Amino acid sequence: MTQATASGTSYIIAARRTALGRPGGLHRARRIETLTAPIVLAALEDAGLEPGVVDEIIFGNTTAGGNPARIIGLAAGLRECVPALTVDRQDASGLDAILLAMRAVAMGEADVVVAGGAESLSTAPWRVARPKSVFQTPRFLGLEPEDGGNGEAPHSVAASEELARKLGITRARQDSYALSSLRKAEQASSERHFVGEIVPLKLTGAEARDESAIAPDIEDLAALSPLMPPDGTHTTGNTSLLHDAAAAVVVVSARVHAELGAPPALRLVASSTQGVGAAEEAMAPVTALEKVLRQANGGFTRDALGLVEMSEVSAAQALALRDAFDLDDAALSPDGGALARGHPLGAASAVSVVRLFTAMARARQIRRPRYGAVTQGAIGGLGVAALFESL
After folding, report:
1. Which pLDDT tens digit goes with each residue over 292-350?
2. What percentage of the chain's residues is helix, strand, coil (to nearest 5)?
3. Mean pLDDT of all residues in 164-187
4. Could you tell me which of 99, 216, 262, 387 has the fewest CB atoms within 10 Å of its CB?
5. How would CATH label the architecture of 7-124+242-259?
């Protein structure tokens, strides 16, 4: 799966997600299947399809263990014979799951596949390191493989800090971008951009909007202490916070798409996965997107790229991407990114695909972007990117 261009045709015809909630917050008592099954059913309903026609379910997840895709499928009422696959490529798991679904359909292995990402940090099992002797106390492990839970900044933040240093991205610029992202998310919510995208799991206002922070003043952001003192530029204000969320899409074949009346859809143009060195981890989404544009039809001009969605680790990572592709403010996460909504690990990149679908297929504006991309970095120095066309 290092790179791929669709051999046949597959279409995303529906995409839904939950509101994003802080761990211990909005979704605090919801197990992963309780969080996700309603999203699967809502996406199928949007597509005009019954659960009984689904051929496969593929979901990304990093914390539940086992094969949660199977549990989600059964909870959503899919047939017992439907195969289920769980993907773990850390932060890029959801996008990978969707790409696997699109490739399976394009190759004629299935007609209808439900795919996405789900992460319930609030109810996920805890990881505990095995003591080396009976005299040692067990210790909890963090979410990153090398994190021993000792209170130090996560490796992803350290890698982003190195990226900022290398590219000369200042603390002031990061804080300004974070504030802009928060304000864009607030405006999008007030203008009801997420209606039809978020599935309220209860009939309350809180279930219909992301449980994100209220935009502070720039002075408040500037007053926050660095995560890597004394000279670090990253703070809790310009880095993304972990959240619970689920996101799902429905992928269908050309035959099913035609039978349904050819509804608005996203078609996969090309995708790629790229590894980078440990010191370049935060640059992985840039490298992956550069690669996928080269692979698309023998070369794809950046000027034609109308929209990019990414669940960024930090403002520095988002700024690096924006600078590398010379994107204007409206082309990169125009309704706010993970800095505003939160970063739900294995579901993060699936949420980005849902956001892209809203802008390119669900929205009713006359001029939609024809081409859009999702790119995502992942712990371990990996980047995954996909280029989509709006039909």
Report:
1. 988 876 666 777 888 999 999 999 999 999 999 999 988 999 999 999 999 999 999 99
2. 35, 20, 40
3. 95
4. 262
5. 3-Layer(aba) Sandwich (3.40)
- Is residue 305 within 8 A of residue 389, CB to CB? The reply is no
Q: Taking the domains of the chain in order of start, what are their residue ranges? A: 7-124+242-259, 266-390
Q: Which two tokens stand for residue 35?
A: 């969080």
Instruction: Please state the three-class secondary structure of 12-65 as a single string.
Output: EEEEEECCCECCCCCCCCCCHHHHHHHHHHHHHHHHCCCHHHCCEEEEECCCCC
Query: Which pair of structure tokens corresponds to residue 213?
Result: 């922070």
CATH tag, 266-390: 3.40.47.10
DSSP output for 242-256:
B-BEEEEEEEEEHHH
Q: How far is CA 308 from the centre of its chain?
A: 12
Which amino acid would we find at residue 109? E
Instruction: Say how far apart CA 172 and CA 183 lie, in whole Å.
Output: 17
Q: Which of 89, 161, 185 is nearest to 315 (CA)?
A: 161
Assess whether the region 7-124+242-259 and the region 266-390 belong to the same CATH fold. yes
Whether residue 344 contacts residue 20, with contact meaning beta carbons closer than 8 Å, is answered with: yes
- Residue 68 pLDDT grade (very low, low, confident, very high; cuts 50, 70, 90): very high
* Token pair of 72 as six digits: 């989600």
Task: Find out whether the peptide bond into 131 is cis, omega within 30 degrees of 0.
Answer: no
In this structure, are residues 75 and 33 in contact, taking their beta carbons and an 8 Å threshold? yes
What is the token pair recorded at 41? 């059913």
In sign, the C-alpha dihedral spanning 360, 237, 91, 327 is positive
pTM: 0.93
Compute the half-sphere exposure of residue 36: CA atoms within 13 Å on the CB side of its CA.
Answer: 35
Q: What whole-number distance in Å separates Cα of residue 210 and Cα of residue 217?
A: 20
> What DSSP line would sit under 327-379, residue for residue?
--TTTBSTT--HHHH-B-GGGHHHHHHHHHHIIIII---SS--SEEEEEEEET
Instruction: Decide the pairing of beta strands 112-119 and 245-253.
Output: antiparallel
Q: 3-state class of 129 per DSSP?
A: strand
25-63 residue pLDDT tens: 999 999 999 999 999 999 999 999 999 999 999 999 999
- DSSP 8-class letter at 194: T
